[in-house]
Amino acid sequence: MAKQDKADAFVTEITPRSQDFSRWYLDVVRRAELADYSPVKGCMVIRPYGYAIWELIQQALDRRIKATGHVNAYFPLFIPESLLNKEAEHVEGFAPQVAYVTHGGGEELEEKLVVRPTSEAIIGTMYAKWVQSWRDLPILINQWCNVVRWEKVTRPFLRTTEFLWQEGHTAHETEAEAEAETLMILHLYKETVETEMAVPVVEGMKSESEKFAGALRTYSIEALMGDGRALQAGTSHNLGQNFAKAFDITFQARDKSVQHVWGTSWGMTTRLVGAAIMVHGDDSGLVLPPRIAPYQVVIVPIGRDNWRETVLPKAKEIQAELVAAGIRVTLDERDERPGWKFSEWELRGVPLRVEIGPKDIEKSAVLVARRDTREKQSVAMNGLPAAIRGLLDDVQRNLLERARQFREEHTQRADTYDAFKQMMDGRPGFVIAPWCGAADCEAQIKTETQATIRNMPIGGSAPAGGCVRCGRPAVAEAWFAKAY
Amino acid sequence: MAKQDKADAFVTEITPRSQDFSRWYLDVVRRAELADYSPVKGCMVIRPYGYAIWELIQQALDRRIKATGHVNAYFPLFIPESLLNKEAEHVEGFAPQVAYVTHGGGEELEEKLVVRPTSEAIIGTMYAKWVQSWRDLPILINQWCNVVRWEKVTRPFLRTTEFLWQEGHTAHETEAEAEAETLMILHLYKETVETEMAVPVVEGMKSESEKFAGALRTYSIEALMGDGRALQAGTSHNLGQNFAKAFDITFQARDKSVQHVWGTSWGMTTRLVGAAIMVHGDDSGLVLPPRIAPYQVVIVPIGRDNWRETVLPKAKEIQAELVAAGIRVTLDERDERPGWKFSEWELRGVPLRVEIGPKDIEKSAVLVARRDTREKQSVAMNGLPAAIRGLLDDVQRNLLERARQFREEHTQRADTYDAFKQMMDGRPGFVIAPWCGAADCEAQIKTETQATIRNMPIGGSAPAGGCVRCGRPAVAEAWFAKAY
Predict the structure, then answer these.
(1) ipTM higher than threshold 0.85
(2) Mutation target vs A (from B75, B107, B250; most A CBs, 10 A cutoff)
């Protein structure tokens, strides 16, 4: 992969973020080799550097999913059309977006197969088979896989016809347990995204119009991107008994009566990689939080023509020392100017750059440059791993803090519709405003301002004022934003 | 998942392996909850216990793939039909087995999409875009994903329409480098399967008729199952320049000439889980090698009605101590007889069972039973983690040794066709015999004995004798077997 850079370096520089956010995003994705367009409409290739970020997110999330008692499994890619059709709202929501397999093994199939857009239908069918008694509950299963939803307009990581995700599917004895699971996972998602990706998110409940097709209630975490638009980063659904009734998932309860299970489902996707880019990136490219950075440190040897003899051996020693301390390090040995290497690794968002030249060696020190603040400091070689570890923690903290501050500066409250519209026309971000709960009012606001309700506080009491648009009694303080 | 057992325990016992190997296999898969049939023809559900085995294999293999300089990436599930058609042998080999997507997003597609049966076509297309100069080589990419090959007769793990695998795809400057990569991966596969799964394998080259569609040469590792039939456990292909020419993957060489790259591809699949079952299992069910066992140890508290008070606290202490030592442990707290629990966990193949009762506690010891040898021994609680670790290593070693011995006892040499046929009719296993290299002779042997050439020694010189069937000069000592 490393050799790839060289050819690309002559291609183009990236559009400054401040100039055109959308082009900047695409430039970063391409130039940092995170993803590439494929010959299949709407599908992208996730390149090794982008995939390594996804793997780190995936591992962090998988660890938490398992620690809370869930187990992984794998269900078929294909869903017979008749199964998808069993839950009315579900099929209505997904049918326009699905891909159909009609031929296999040289023959036309008797029944069309849907390429899974999500797996409630196939998993529900299996749960009906596996659950007999309350003793079989809860079922706490998660799946890592690819899903396909036909998209007209796509954007790498954010919206693609095929994407990767995890989908959890659980079945419970009681409604209360299902609701507790739904919220536990929502909190787990928030904690994961904030801790690992340094992306602060707002937890809340979706409105009826934005909820998952077939769910009772959908909760989401919403992040604010660098351009002030919101991005849904994860969803957790309380399915009630909807799928249990559609797929006949029943159990003999403790009182011997036959009951339907209570279900949940929840997912986070490769779109998270897009969120990391859009929250932290700057004019020079990617800025990666250390915990999800494929390389946390790049070592660049500095020196005259003979740097391979004078500097490289020490650089390799330092690399070995940092690797032994569990730090992800790359050493850039290429025959290029240091300045060229600096730009390359800034573009790729490596959190710390370690420069080492003959003078540093004399002083038994290295120069460490932070990607987030661009501060440089001399650090003694003695005890370097601990110092680097400390700096990485500091970068991680600083990125979260910076993103939190940005969100606070871009979150406003509106009491009147005029103020609301002005805010949406002006500096973008979240606008918190009372809402009456009516779908037509929500739709009207969207038409007039492009803003949608991202989510609403969980368990919040009704606000005092009237709906920001219609003045009718408000049911919630909704978080509005223009969204991806 | 644990609660699931209870209901199932009343269902059926398993067919003894000695009585009907094929039914035994299916019984173990179902009763140990490794996999289940799905409503989609030919597709299975990998249940949590089976998936946990796959995850352990996957992690062990992924670690090795990365340690040898490869990086992971992700390419689209769909391949436009025209791309698959570019390599003539490749399409001929795979076209009869593919599934076609013809409709998406409510419309008929202009071009049919193939659900990937393997990804040479889509990855080759991208490599053509990414490679310009010899400096861009080698490309060393691996992908973990699902693939679909329409199958008429299926069997859980061994042959299913959809399966999970990794597929490596590399591009090199020279033919020698590609061949070295192909063989390096073959050795890596052998080492992984032997070390992690305790399954001994025979490395070798496939005959022309058995090689991968589009490859120059295919190498494989072949394992012998408990019924004496062979199973192809992994393949590594030297693609030569076939795909490079079909997909126009060219580069400017060091001498400025334009050359096609030299390619390789290689894969191992979820079928490995089937191999582990069929190599180590016995009449009582699964026998898992510790390194791929989801639980390496099960703790079963023994005692009268009041065991929850008298024994459970100590059992939990021991569990915590073992977990802290990095051992995968489950504690069976269910309200069932110990004897019932013993059978359950034997069926599930847990390598070590730790029994703890009031008398053991008095003696500050536990009783440890090995799944492989069924030996029981009293082990002092003091220093238990180290003792358990030692026993686990011993079980792992013993299983490999036992499987190796079984294979040796079931490997024979045949010099005459009569002897060959007699061996194939009699005790099944590998038969090594000289072969002339002619496809018609190979086909004839298959028709007459059901045996196929599994593979042939790499770089071996031609044997002295004539072909076992036709007497013409032999080109290799081929390993024949009836195979899955």
Answers:
(1) yes
(2) B75
